[in-house]
What we know:
Blueprint: H1 5-41, H2 47-73
Helix pairs in contact: 1-2
Protein name: Secreted protein
Transmembrane segments: 6-28, 49-72
Keywords: Membrane, Transmembrane, Transmembrane helix
Amino acid sequence: MKIDWAALGSVFLIALVAVSVLTSLFAVGVRGLAARTTARETGASGGSGLTTAVVCFAVCVAVVGYGIYLIVAA
Length: 74
């Protein structure tokens, strides 16, 4: 049995980057919701925080959905 270490390292690196990006996007989305809540308490509309949160969460859902598609289609 031979292990292709280069391919294994490549998969590990890509997975690590994907997890970092996805986690960061989710954190920015949560921060956007928090900013909206803070803005609403002060009387502002909080539209930019909500827009940021919706876009970040939509990208997260799209990435997860694409990952599931790749697993199921294979």
